[in-house]
Fold this sequence. Notes:
disordered C terminus; mainly alpha; single chain
Amino acid sequence: xxxxxxxxxxxxxxxxxxxxxxxxxxxxxxxxxxxxxxxxxxxxxxxxxxxxxxxxxxxxxxxxxxxxxxxxxxxxxxxxxxxxxxxxxxxxxxxxxxxxxxxxxxxxxxxxxxxxxxxxxxxxxxxxxxxxxxxxxxxxxxxxxxxxxxxxxxxxxxxxxxxxxxxxxxxxxxxxxxxxxxxxxxxxxxxxxxxxxxxxxxxxxxxxxxxxxxxxxxxxxxxxxxxxxxxxxxxxxxxxxxxxxxxxxxxxxxxxxxxxxxxxxxxxxxxxxxxxxxxxxxxxxxxxxxxxxxxxxxxxxxxxxxxxxxxxxxxxxxxxxxxxxxxxxxxxxxxxxxxxxxxxxxxxxxxxxxxxxxxxxxxxxxxxxxxxxxxxxxxxxxxxxxxxxxxxxxxxxxxxxxxxxxxxxxxxxxxxxxxxxxxxxxxxxxxxxxxxxxxxxxxxxxxxxxxxxxxx
Length: 456
């Protein structure tokens, strides 16, 4: 596989199949758990899973923060022909992850109940949250390491290895859910055990890539460790904020729904959130398919190949958007009923909540693609600004202010409105930056160094 010479369309679809397959199976971890719990534990179990979603997002944040930036920079370095420099980025990224894991794991174990209350748990659903969450907390590294390694293995021209690891773990998770939750009647603890076993297998398979002869992932001594650490974190923060934004948005949404609605509304949101996580993962898969091609060709100064990869990403995003929005708009009750055992209160709450929230998907995918793309061409600061705006500043402001006049409808419309405003900014900036960096004169003169020198 040659990222600089092979046909872009063929390369893109190789990465897309692997990334989408991985995205689907990663989402199945929570998706199958939610179905098993929703069917066995009904409303209380679904509400508990809504509370646990931000914790899973935090784990993804640490993996992406330390992994995605280093992987992008590694790929750009390989494109420049500087293998040692690329390996230095890998080494520094592993060091960052080790530190983050040590701190977060300790805090999680000692303060897990306080963390779950912050995410929206009350006394009524806390027992269900702890039934599932205890084991997840104690085995937290098994969920972080595979996502981290996936960033580098994919950029090391082995997307099929990532897909094999994720699919293997997903199969174990599905089988475990079927066996532990129903025949063995282990409830939420059984679902948690199945998830941990799947994540453990995925971790082992991902790490095996390090021992392959053709693996470029080697540890070397970085020339300037502090500065390289800063470059890696800056490059990874924009994609990491996408994950951290899920934490903030889910937490704020959970608390606002409980303020303006009932536990039935939270249960419906728990189901919608699980579906949304699947959709976001697929959108992320589109971005991950674009990123290695764009990064390598940015390092090699080949703008035509970069633009071709972006065009394919836009087409895939538009296709997914049409499907996702139509499914939730046309069959909201059917989707929720598929995932959990419904009560009359849940059925009554589902149609309006789901249809309002599904408007989010009309624009979400394009913003996710935009962040990955800007990151791949070393526009990390702008990618980070866009991520912060959509994941924290504007969305949180609207989630708190719109309900003052619109009640629960305002909570559900906050994300579609904020995402639309951010999309206008994202598209405008990409068009502006293309006129600059892809101008023939600029391309001929451009000198590529580190991410810091590429910022606007």
